[in-house]
């Protein structure tokens, strides 16, 4: 019997089935700027309507949250996570997402699972007026075990050069406003899985995996609603490293984000993790978003308007002078 690619563990037919399952849905994310369709070697996107456009790009993955999804056999939210982790980053600079590409790697491809993951990306793209214009599915036996998947993405957005938000306008007295997260989002799951090894256990009346797999919140509509009405000085996406690592990324020298952590609305599942794992509060805030998915920094005269525009946003601190770029009081 002669050797074939399939006998080595790669089933091309399963890949073709995946494309068949997603092609129509992916096409529904396209607009007139997309000049070709799924299956080409490269994806074409035409830019128009801007005076001095700057492209803003971001790439990320889902991390070990994938283990929760795979072990629980729940795949519909993972694609949303992948898109959100990329798109939320470029929002920090005032960009609007234009298009998204995905990368899906596995040991043995199952077209049903792969399609479910990609259809989550499709849903997220539609919600963010973004086109899913390409991607890659890699079946790599020997690199990944059967049943294992890894997911990553790449998002490109656009902003007028004179409208870029980079934190350079942040000044003393500016207010820090929190936008709530939907949970852990896609960070810290190596620690989450260590403390919560049984995803089937009951938590607040339902299996724990349902709480853990709530997808990362998409902030496109909220952020651009604010940007259109108010001059925003800075935006930070609270991902790995929590508030301690992400807020200083937009704070200039000599300034400090002074935050009253007692004002932060911490999700109950994070409080349970903290208690069960005997984790110090500072460690929690340096690992997880602790209920704050994004922060915006605005002039104090604009703070009330932002709170009015965003129903669930709330103030957690202000910008002061200081050598340290962040100070959390508990």
From TrEMBL:
Domain of life: Bacteria
Pfam families named in the record: AIRS, AIRS_C
UniProt domain PurM-like C-terminal: residue ranges: 171-323
Domain PurM-like N-terminal: 54-159
Metabolic or biological pathway: Purine metabolism; IMP biosynthesis via de novo pathway; 5-amino-1-(5-phospho-D-ribosyl)imidazole from N(2)-formyl-N(1)-(5-phospho-D-ribosyl)glycinamide: step 2/2
InterPro entries in alphabetical order: PurM-like_C_dom, PurM-like_C_sf, PurM-like_N, PurM-like_N_sf, PurM_cligase
GO MF annotation: an example: phosphoribosylformylglycinamidine cyclo-ligase activity
Record family assignment: Belongs to the AIR synthase family.
Top-level EC class: ligase
EC number: 6.3.3.1
Entries under SUPFAM superfamilies matching the protein: PurM C-terminal domain-like (SSF56042), PurM N-terminal domain-like (SSF55326)
UniProt keyword annotations, A-Z: ATP-binding, Cytoplasm, Ligase, Nucleotide-binding, Purine biosynthesis
Annotated CDD domains: PurM (cd02196)
Reaction equations catalysed: 2-formamido-N(1)-(5-O-phospho-beta-D-ribosyl)acetamidine + ATP = 5-amino-1-(5-phospho-beta-D-ribosyl)imidazole + ADP + phosphate + H(+)
Protein location: Cytoplasm
Protein name per UniProt: Phosphoribosylformylglycinamidine cyclo-ligase
Phylogenetic placement of the source organism: Bacteria, Pseudomonadati, Bacteroidota, Flavobacteriia, Flavobacteriales
